[in-house]
Amino acid sequence: MRLGFGEIVVVLALALLFFGPSKLPQLGSSLGQAIKSFKKGLSSIQEDDSAASEQEAKQLPARPEEGAPAASDQVAARGTKR
Prior knowledge:
Blueprint: H1 5-19, H2 24-59, H3 71-78
């Protein structure tokens, strides 16, 4: 849904009538601050998610090389001798 020029003018005129000319600058600045803090919160969530995924990737064990035996193969090769 897109707003055209006419719809925006009607919304602004209603806001001017409802809030008055002295409150509109305060409303505009508070709306701008709210949007700024919302964007900042979203970016911090994304940074936290990426940091968590990087940390999980570091904690995962490395894949054994194709030529090297896996850890379970090494245990089986040793046998059960004590």
